[in-house]
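Example S7 (structure tokens).
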């Protein structure tokens, strides 16, 4: 059985289902399984082959894609299959920390299988969105072998042999994305409750991505030098955060995110005063808290 023609997908949440649909559209034989029954029927109508058991699903293909909520779920699922995974390649597309990923990879290797980490950097479950990427890490030759299959999903970015690397880059991206989504909703609530108009705000902020790109480059360069900010900048950012807090609270909206932001500047200012040298916020975040 060729790994390129037949594939198994374990886990049929939104990402697993979207993955299966793309593979079916590409003409592959796709065997599917999900812990909770009922999610495979719609995929069966599209041509997928539901397996009754994990063992059957794994037996059907040499390449097994996992799309589960976290790495812990992998153990309980794969333990329902064969103890010996020789001849099988597990590509885990689930999200987790690099450490949990490395542990999961070692677990599969111990059972004779091969392992590749995949992290979907996608627009929700819109895997074919032009901005989507699959971050991949693990043995380069294994990725070379599976690349024709994985590129069917979205553009691959191979990040290196360390199994955790794909997750490291993915989780760092998610750190920005999570904060962005909350800060966006904070801004929208301020506008709405403060007497502004959401559409006007959207129009005014539509080019923000361009300046964010410039800030990314500038702050990345600064990070390599220890971080951005002199004393005046730290004080200015602290005061600026207070203005956002006041505006939010006057409008009756939640300002907890900005209070957290302000706290970073407060800690940087405190550390600067304590040490007598400028301690940029980046050093606080990186874990150099200025205590030395
Ligand atoms: N959705 C997105 O936009 C997105 C984007 C990028 C990456 N991801 C990542 O892709 C992975 C899958 O995400 P998802 O959105 O499809 O949904 P999800 O809610 O993260 O995962 C759903 C899948 O995990 C299974 N599952 C949960 N706990 C389990 C357990 N203890 N044992 C066995 N199976 C278990 C579910 O089975 P049941 O149906 O039986 O509950 C279902 O198949 C996640 O790691 C997620 O972080 C998601």
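Recovered sequence:
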């Amino acid at each position: 059985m060729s790994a390129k023609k037949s594939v198994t997908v374990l886990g049929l949440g939104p990402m697993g289902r979207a993955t299966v649909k793309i593979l079916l559209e590409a003409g592959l034989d796709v065997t599917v399984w999900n812990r909770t029954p009922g999610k495979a029927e719609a995929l069966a109508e599209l041509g997928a082959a539901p397996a009754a058991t994990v063992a059957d699903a794994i037996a059907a293909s040499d390449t097994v894609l996992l799309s589960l909520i976290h790495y812990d779920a992998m153990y309980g699922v794969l333990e329902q299959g064969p103890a010996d995974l020789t001849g099988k390649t597990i590509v885990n597309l689930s999200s987790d920390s690099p450490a949990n990923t490395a542990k999961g990879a070692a677990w599969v290797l111990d059972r004779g299988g091969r392992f590749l980490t995949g992290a979907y950097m996608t627009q929700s479950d819109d895997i074919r969105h032009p901005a989507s990427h699959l971050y991949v890490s693990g043995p380069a030759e294994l990725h070379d072998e599976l690349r024709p299959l994985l590129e069917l999903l979205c553009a691959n970015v191979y990040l290196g042999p360390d199994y955790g690397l794909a997750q490291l880059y993915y989780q760092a991206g998610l750190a920005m994305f999570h904060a962005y989504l909350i800060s966006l909703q904070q801004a929208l609530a301020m506008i709405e409750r403060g007497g502004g108009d959401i559409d006007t705000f959207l129009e005014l902020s539509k080019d923000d991505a361009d300046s964010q790109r410039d800030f990314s480059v500038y702050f990345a360069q600064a990070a390599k030098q220890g971080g951005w900010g002199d004393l005046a900048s730290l004080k200015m950012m602290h005061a600026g955060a207070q203005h956002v807090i006041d505006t939010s609270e006057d409008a009756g909206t939640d300002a907890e995110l900005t209070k957290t932001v302000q706290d970073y500047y407060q800690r940087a200012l405190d550390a600067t005063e304590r040490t007598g040298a400028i301690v940029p916020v980046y050093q606080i975040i990186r874990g150099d808290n200025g205590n030395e």
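Notes on this example. The first helix runs from residue 14 to 25.
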